[in-house]
Amino acid sequence: MNLIRSFALLLVAAVVATPALAQDRRVPASGAELRLSYAPIVQRAQPAVVNVYAAKTVQNRNPLLDDPVFRRFFGVPGQQPEQMQRSLGSGVMVDPAGLVVTNNHVIEGADQVKISLADKREFEAEIVLKDSRTDLAVLRVKDGREKFATLEFANSDELLVGDVVLAIGNPFGVGQTVTHGIVSALARTKVGITDYQFFIQTDAAINPGNSGGALVDMTGKLVGINTAIFSRSGGSQGIGFAIPANMVRVVVASAKSGGKAVKRPWLGAKLQAVTPEIAETLGLKLPNGALVANVAPNSPAARAGLKPSDLIVAIEGQTIDEPNAFDYRFATRQLGGAAQIDVQRAGKTVKLTVPLETAPDTNRDEIVLTARSPFQGAKVANISPAIADELHLDSQTEGVVVIDLADGGTAASVGFQKGDIILAVNSQKIAKTSDLDKASKVSSRLWRIVVVRGGQQINVTLGG
Q1: Given this model, what pLDDT does residue 175 score?
Q2: What values do phi and psi take at 183, rounded to 5?
Q3: Predicted pLDDT at 388
Q4: What GO biological process terms does the UniProt entry carry, in alphabetical order (predicted)?
Q5: Which residues are catalytic?
Q6: What is the pLDDT of residue 364?
Q7: How many alpha carbons lie under 13 Å from residue 192 in its C-beta half-sphere?
Q8: pLDDT of res. 19
């Protein structure tokens, strides 16, 4: 007992003796201070965080059932049995009319979606918008006749490393759970989850089932949507990632406006990272910034005066360390205005004004190929500037590109991938989707296909 009292006196003495180091740290002065809690924040935020249940029907595909002789001999029906696959995640109510934001991977391919509130009530929901580029999706409660509790968006650009945050979700399906930690890093770009690599990293415990849940600050506002963890075991290792609220806000705004796709500003220029070798060539002290590789004619970048070899170092006064940072900053700007960017050109800083407008999306002519061929089940489109931007293709690329693949379709099973550009089929040049549709309907014992994937041309031969 005396030892404990003496230690306390020494601690107080140390605090008094070193006020500069102590800052605001002190021993609790009362029992009331010992009872300080995050409970008021949780009570405000928790009603707006929901559980998301998604289900999709799949067929148990037995390859023997494709053989009509096998089916006839054994009397097996041609219709293959179905099975229900279920997934579980979390979501955040962002509009009192029943608009919920969650992760796209939680509801991907779902036939049925339900949400469950903190008070255990369940509602059926419909998918309003899916955005694979950010791994976000927006749901709407069906037949919602009440006003739901919501979370207000914070300005995620104001977060600092060390800020205390709470993660709210439904880990492992055990029920709504709150964990706390700090923002352990900002602008994480080498995570490899979505197109826009600019994550908030936190050590608040995040586990499977937390996906789509809320990351809130000490004012109870939404600073991010929890989306992934770094784990060797499948459980929390103290490294979780959240999509910043400023990006979430853009996706929700598109859903509210009735759009089926997210509208974002289009730059019309290809950017690349500055390596130490490039930095040395350019005479830079640090390998920072986004280097302009090429500029599309008549694009916003071209009209602003951006040129190849320009080095983008800032946008609206915010420093740009690499292309991912620029992509995020630019994508979260509001359409219709303009963005000021700082460029280093020939050793001088040049300020340019880039108009914020969407990429042209004309003459897509999307079709799903259904004829018996290696392309069966592929959705293809003519390459427009909007598709080139979405799939990270060169802005001047022309031709027909795979934009989606049906589960269980022939195209997926033979190895086609989203982003593949089809140049030729059986020596016939493919310039537009109607060309590919026509070529896929021609019966052939061998299919000779020329594909461009990742900038590399591949010649493929498949059996008919």
Answers
A1: 80
A2: -75, 115
A3: 84
A4: proteolysis
A5: 105, 135, 211
A6: 83
A7: 1
A8: 45
Name the DSSP class of 48: G
What is the Cα–Cα distance from 236 to 234, expressed in whole angstroms? 7
SS3 322: coil
pLDDT at 80: 53
Residues 6 or more apart whose Cβ sits within 8 Å of residue 30:
none
Which pLDDT does position 48 carry in this prediction?
A: 93
Q: For residue 151, how many other CB atoms are within 10 A of its CB?
A: 23
Is 224 buried (19+), middle (13-18) or exposed (0-12) by CB count in 10 A? Answer: buried
* Distance separating alpha carbons of residues 383 and 41, to the nearest angstrom: 48
The answer to whether 244 touches 337, Cβ cutoff 8 Å, is: no
Low-confidence residues of the chain, pLDDT below 50?
1-22, 64-65, 69-74, 76, 78
Q: How far apart are CA 205 and CA 239, in angstroms?
A: 8
pLDDT digits (tens, 9 = 90+) for 112-139: 899 999 888 899 999 999 988 888 999 9
Residue 77 exposed, middle or buried by CB count within 10 Å (0-12, 13-18, 19+): exposed
> Residue 102 has which token pair?
């969650």
Structure-token match 């021609």, residue found = 442
Structure token digits, residue 58: 């799949």
Burial code (b: 16+ CB inside 10 Å, e: under 16) for 314-343 equals bbeeeebbbbbbbbbbbbbbeeeebbebbb
Distance CA 441, CA 434 (A): 11
pLDDT at 355: 95
Assigned token pair, 415: 């190895």
Residue among 235, 239, 243, 307 nearest 269 (CA): 307
